[in-house]
């Protein structure tokens, strides 16, 4: 495995800090996404909430056409929270469109679909078939590669 493959696999794995709350439980923050703050009564519950919070933060950045930062290096006191795969793929498409300087209308033309369909593909809250995301990424010269580590 080369260095670029490692970067791709870690692209949507963000470090989170679990801080004990004075009232019990844990407050979860992400230094790469300052707007992402959540909590849970136990570490396990906080981790579940952190995954949901991370997903919402990335979805909001896509909706608001903002940058999606690369994750920082994880420190010893932090936990890694991984973005759910469908949202990670939609974020990948969003980033690929930015990289190619292509609009939703232009991608729609490439895919021979209505622009509304591209909006749905990019909508993190809309369930999109994997084959549809693959086709959109392929139109931008990208492909999905799965590796288990």
Concise description?
48% of the residues lie in helices and 13% in strands.
Unreliable sequence segments? 1-9
Q: State the CATH class of the largest domain.
A: Alpha Beta
Question: Helical content, roughly?
Answer: 40-55%
CATH architecture annotation of the largest domain? 2-Layer Sandwich
What order do the SSEs take from the amino end to the carboxyl end, as H and E?
HEEEHEHHHH
The CATH topology of the largest domain turns out to be Double Stranded RNA Binding Domain
Structural class: alpha+beta
The largest pleated sheet is described as: 4 strands, antiparallel
- How large is the count of helical segments? 6
- Using DSSP, what is the number of strands? 4
How many separate structural domains?
Answer: 2
State the distance separating the first and last CA atoms: 11 Å
- Beta fraction: 5-15%
Mean pLDDT: 91
Rounded radius of gyration (Å): 17 Å
Within the largest sheet, what's the order of strands?
3-2-1-4
Note the overall shape.
elongated
Please identify the oligomeric state: single chain
Describe the protein's architecture and organization.
It is a single chain. It contains six helices and four strands, in the order αβββαβαααα. The protein has 149 residues and is an alpha+beta fold. It folds into two domains: 80 residues, Double Stranded RNA Binding Domain; 55 residues, 434 Repressor (Amino-terminal Domain). α3 runs parallel beside α6 and α4 packs across α5. The N terminus is likely disordered.
């Amino acid at each position: 495995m080369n260095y670029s493959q490692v970067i791709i696999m870690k692209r949507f794995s963000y470090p989170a800090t679990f801080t004990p709350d004075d009232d019990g439980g844990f407050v979860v923050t992400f230094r790469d996404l300052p707007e992402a703050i959540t909590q849970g009564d136990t570490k396990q519950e906080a981790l579940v909430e952190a995954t949901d919070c991370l997903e919402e933060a990335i979805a909001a950045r896509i909706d608001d056409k903002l940058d999606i930062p690369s994750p920082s290096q994880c420190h010893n006191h932090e936990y890694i929270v991984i973005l759910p795969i469908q949202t990670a793929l939609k974020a990948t498409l969003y980033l690929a469109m930015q990289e190619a300087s292509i609009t939703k209308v232009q991608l729609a033309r490439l895919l021979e679909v209505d622009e509304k369909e591209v909006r749905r593909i990019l909508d993190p809250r809309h369930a999109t078939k994997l084959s549809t995301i693959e086709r959109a990424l392929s139109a931008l010269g990208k492909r999905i590669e799965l590796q288990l580590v």
